[in-house]
């Protein structure tokens, strides 16, 4: 837990929750705080299994997983390939489009000087500006007009070398938690602020998150999209698919291969509705991960 990304504090919270709730009758739990990249090698020499609670770069992007594979240490969650693909939102969306999964129009840029306002106009305001490989809605903004777009791009570039500008889709946000390819109960997200930003995700009372039963034909569309995401992005063990139910269709936003596991996080709520308490849920992740890593 910890790490070197902008999501370090979230990772520490996730790590503490996992360490406190793993079954002590089955596992000897050793908290390992990552402060620099070398720690992945230096601090993991004597462990049998790595439960990854890292978020963001050097954690969720497949690099830490690749190091652990080199060290022959089994680890939780998706493979380096799936993690790397899903961390890059633009690559994810490109793959999804080829397999018929609906996603909002977008483009990326790596410099504020390359901002093409005509291209933004073609997508149509409002747009969402965010780091292409970021998470936790850090440096994410909804921009309603040309006067604010340059500032939003500049802010996002502080956190990533590439920025995504994406059509804003008005609708209800849901999250689809998947474990071993099985879709767990769907959660509807109703943030107290204007969108599901960092505060909404991690502060108590920041959003209402409720288990819902989708009605046909939306239910079938959501299930198909989630399963296609799992299959074509080569996910394994567990992952979370975020979707907007728009006025005309559903739109996949992104896939999280290391979703947060704090007491306020979405995945434990979905797992509980499925019938797994937090201890059982964490144990299932360990067992599925060991199976996936052979």
Describe it:
By secondary structure, the protein is α+β, with helices and mostly antiparallel strands. The chain has three domains: about 10-75, Rossmann fold (3-Layer(aba) Sandwich), CATH 3.40.50.20; about 85-100 and about 170-290, D-amino Acid Aminotransferase, Chain A, domain 1 (2-Layer Sandwich); about 105-165, ATP-grasp fold, A domain (Dna Ligase, domain 1, 2-Layer Sandwich), CATH 3.30.1490. About 35% of the residues lie in helices and about 20% in strands. The protein contains eleven helices and ten strands. Strands 5, 6, 7, 8, 9 and 10 form a six-stranded antiparallel sheet that branches. Strands 1-4-2-3 form a four-stranded antiparallel sheet, with helices on one face. A hairpin with a 2-residue loop joins strand 5 and strand 6 (about 180-185). The radius of gyration is 19 Å and the shape is globular.
Topology of helices and strands:
Blueprint: H1 8-21, H2 39-42, H3 63-70, H4 80-87, H5 89-98, E1 106-109, H6 117-123, E2 127-131, E3 141-143, H7 146-157, E4 163-167, E5 171-179, E6 182-183, E7 186-191, H8 198-202, E8 207-212, H9 218-232, E9 238-246, E10 250-256, H10 266-274, H11 278-292
Antiparallel strand pairs: 1-4, 2-3, 2-4, 5-6, 5-7, 5-9, 7-8, 9-10
């Amino acid at each position: 837990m910890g790490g070197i990304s902008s999501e370090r504090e979230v990772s520490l919270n996730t790590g503490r929750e996992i360490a406190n709730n793993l079954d002590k009758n089955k596992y000897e739990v050793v908290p390992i705080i990552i402060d620099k990249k070398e720690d992945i090698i230096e601090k993991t020499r004597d462990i049998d299994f790595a439960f990854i609670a890292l978020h963001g770069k050097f954690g969720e992007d497949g690099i830490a997983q690749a190091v652990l594979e080199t060290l022959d240490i089994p680890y939780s969650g998706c493979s380096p390939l799936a993690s790397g693909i899903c961390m890059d939102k633009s690559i994810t969306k490109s793959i999804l489009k080829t397999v018929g999964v609906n996603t909002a129009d977008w483009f990326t840029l790596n410099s504020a000087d390359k901002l093409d306002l005509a291209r933004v106009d073609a997508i149509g305001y409002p747009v969402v500006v965010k780091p292409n490989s970021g998470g936790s809605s850090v440096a994410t903004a909804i921009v309603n007009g040309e006067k604010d777009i340059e500032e939003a791009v500049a802010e996002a570039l502080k956190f990533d070398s590439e920025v995504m500008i994406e059509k804003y889709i008005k609708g209800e946000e849901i999250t689809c938690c998947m474990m071993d390819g099985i879709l767990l109960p769907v959660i509807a997200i109703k943030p107290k602020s204007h969108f599901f930003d960092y505060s909404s995700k991690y502060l108590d009372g920041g959003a209402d998150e409720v288990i819902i039963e989708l009605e046909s034909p939306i239910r079938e569309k959501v299930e198909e999209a989630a399963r296609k995401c799992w299959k074509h992005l080569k996910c394994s063990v567990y992952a979370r698919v975020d979707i907007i139910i728009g006025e005309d269709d559903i739109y996949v936003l992104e896939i999280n291969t290391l979703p947060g596991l704090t007491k306020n996080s979405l995945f434990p709520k979905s797992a509980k509705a499925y019938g797994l308490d937090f201890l059982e849920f964490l144990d299932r992740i360990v067992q599925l991960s060991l199976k996936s890593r052979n």
